[in-house]
Design goal:
By secondary structure, this protein is mainly alpha-helical. It has helices spanning about 1-65, 70-80, 90-100, 125-155, 160-165, and strands at about 70, 105-110, 115-125. A 3-stranded antiparallel sheet has the order 1-3-2.
Length: about 170
């Protein structure tokens, strides 16, 4: 009977060790996943910065050429047209509007809003000329960038490391 008790306690120790080992493994795996998610968040912020600096002036000129708009309306329109994938910051949009106005590509006019005054921007003749010139240059470059991103994505997704994890 004493031997059976010893076997039982040895077995429970093994189970306890196995459980501790599994807990350690899961904790390490969780830390790795958190690190991956942080890296993805950083990459997303970097991509957003690239989009904001590269396409934002062009897109703002385009949107204002369609109809006069105020800053928050431009932000909402960009979010709507990109299905929420691009959410430019209000600080970025408002500082850009000031720069475009200073260059003479937009002109702003104060209007009474429901709760406060708001500045509505219209495109100028110089702004229309710049927009037309940019629209001649940009599409081929955007198409080439899009294709490059497709190829890089395909290459990354065919990475043997990903296949090993699957």
């Amino acid at each position: 009977m004493a031997k059976k008790k010893a076997d039982t306690s040895a077995q429970s120790l093994l189970e306890s060790d196995a459980i501790r080992s599994e807990i350690s493994r899961i904790e390490a795996e969780g830390k790795a996943k958190v690190a991956q998610l942080r890296d993805l968040a950083d990459a997303g912020e970097l991509l957003n910065e690239v989009l904001s600096r590269g396409f934002l002036p062009l897109f703002v000129l385009h949107l204002v050429s369609l109809q006069p708009r105020h800053g928050n309306e431009i932000i909402r329109e960009i979010e709507l047209r990109t299905e929420g994938l691009w959410e430019p910051s209000s600080g970025g949009v408002y500082s850009l509007l000031k720069k475009l106005e200073k260059r003479g590509w937009l002109e702003g006019e104060w209007e009474e809003g429901a709760t406060r005054k708001k500045r509505t921007y219209s495109i100028t003749a110089d702004g229309e000329a710049i927009l037309a010139a940019l629209l001649e240059i940009v599409p081929p470059r955007v198409a080439a960038t899009h294709r490059a991103l497709e190829l890089v994505t395909l290459d990354l997704l065919s990475n043997p490391i990903l296949e090993e994890k699957a």
